[in-house]
What we know:
Elements (H helix, E strand, L loop, with lengths): L2 H20 L6 E6 L2 E10 L4 E10 L12 E7 L1 H6 L3 H10 L7 E5 L11 H9 L19 H16 L2 E10 L1 H12 L6 E5 L5 H11 L7 E7 L6 H17 L4 E7 L6 H17 L8
Parallel strand pairs: 4-5, 4-6, 6-7, 7-8, 8-9
Antiparallel strand pairs: 1-2, 2-3, 3-5
Amino acid sequence: MRMKGHKDILRVLVSLAMLGSCLFAGAAQRSRFSATGTVELLTLHSGVFSNTRTIRVWLPQGYNDPDSSRRKYAVFYFTDGIAVFHGRELDRIAGELTAQHRIPPTIFVGIDNGGSTRESKEPGSDRANEYLPFPDEFLEPPVPNPQGKLFSAFFEREVRPLIEKRYRTNGEIGIAGSSYGGLIALYSVLQNPKEYKWLLLESPSLYVGQDALLKLAAAHKAWPGRVYVGAGTDEGDGDSKREMVDDVHRLMHAIEGRTTACLVIAPGAQHNEDAWRARLPFALGFLLGGKKCPPAI
């Protein structure tokens, strides 16, 4: 979706990024317990991006029980970590789906973005800098030389080792994101296709770099075992609404026949956390629980 349709969601994400800076965990780890799981906050000092951020980890109920001490878990990573846990309520939804046996017990990780780091001065630009592998010609103010191509190194060299050293993981991973976060999740899969079992994209910004990722996807063959893509029919203004739907259809055309894929177009849904939160249970059910792809939500 072009810049004119990004303005509202950028304001929301910048606000959440600033909240992340205010709530930054100074200690190495904090925990919050609930009936449906445990949320732990870790601190990651990134050498790739030269900043410090919070990594949010949801552990399913029973993870710390003695009877489960040898059990290992898949890990599902989300970009825009603070937005996912606060706006999308990932921990609550994951707890409910697990308790209802709609998905297997899984570790969910939210990776705070560059705008949520301790060092961030311009949350919107700092987020875009990490999530754009190519410049967004519609972004205001512009980020002419974004560092998104470094995200895969950041993820593989810093985020995954932090999680896999601390928690009992089984090597199966998924990655998810929305808007710019969806763009960088897709880019990560295209760069390291063998690493991922699941891919979840909500309203990805596929127009960036003159449709560069759509062109890469068209030639790509090794996709994760399951891919979910969601979008709404009311994202942005004017032509942006049609362009978002057209873009995800183009992406799905590149994916279909090469893996098990699900495309959900939600009538009237906008480009915001409310829409993504509403679709999240269905997306996780399809990806992790083996459920059928819903025709619409």
